[in-house]
Amino acid sequence: MAENTNIVLASRPDSTGTIEIVPEVLEVILGIAAVNVDGVYQMRGSLASSINAWFGRANRGKGVTVTVDGDQVHADVYVYLNYGVSVPKVALAIQKTLREQLLFMTDLELAQVDVHVVGVVPEKAPAVDKTDLFKDDEEDETTEEDD
Predict the structure, then answer these.
(1) Domain containing 57: what range?
(2) 94 assigned to some structural domain
(3) Which of 8, 15, 62, 124 has the fewest CB atoms lying closer than 10 Å?
(4) Which residues contact 20 (CB under 8 A, 6 or more apart)?
(5) 8-62 confidence digits (pLDDT tens)
(6) Domain count of the chain?
């Protein structure tokens, strides 16, 4: 028999039943929140998420792994950061944002958020104009001044 890994939210006296959340839903919530933090380039994906992206199906929970241990929820977040950002500041912002979003959306508190920086992505250099590849800038400046 399969183990029930759904997270049961605290029952309220005025409710008519229980509310259960699948951990994959928490991964989607945390994945969307992490991508929106300034300095995050993208989340780490797997082969399955890459194949799904080729077919046009976005996997919003990629790069996030949620584990539930009793009443505690732990999250591992795998991110690529933009070049030039402060890694500790962005990591702390990710932790803060994920805790706030999960609490706001589900009333669950994250006991631990581990941020794994997988890589840093440099800014793209401007494309080189192949027609002006061997153009001499000094000659152009002197002809403009003569006019």
Answers:
(1) 18-124
(2) yes
(3) 124
(4) 6, 7, 8, 9
(5) 776 666 767 778 888 889 999 999 999 999 999 888 764 444 445 445 555 455 7
(6) 1
